[in-house]
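Revision sheet: structure tokens.
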Amino acid sequence: MLFDFFYIVSELKKVPRKGWKEKIGITHPESVADHSFSAAVMAMVFSDLKKLDTQKMLKMALLHDLSESITGDFTPEEISKNDKKEIENQTMNEILSRLPSEIANEYAKIWNEFQEETSKESVVMHDIDRLEMAIQALKYNAEGYPKEKLALFFESAKKDVRSKEILGILDEISYK
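Predicted:
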């Protein structure tokens, strides 16, 4: 049972972040696992700075894209937000069913909190998800990918972020 869960989790290492591939033409973009690791480190730091529940934030960061180990990475153009949410919720239930119920229930609660943005931690985690994408866009620009195309990712991140601290970081690194 645990083996099945861990096997599914490890699939994230093979799931490319599709937007980089399709919109920028990056042949070997970062994986969802790469993104999740960076987001988890950011979640730890922001949670400690804001005196939030860091343990919950770390769990949320590690769970936030876990369903993509089965569904793959969707781009906003290929699926509606509601359909994506429904598919990811069903998939997450399937993944968590491989864990003992006590742990699965705790993770499901954190997952649902993230999906519904019902806590300070979940709102900050959504902002971190966007910040991580903007930082990755800057990294790809430094590798020679076109600034004009990458600016789409940065602007997308900036319009969705609500945290003053994270908006401040985005302003500092803004494409000008």
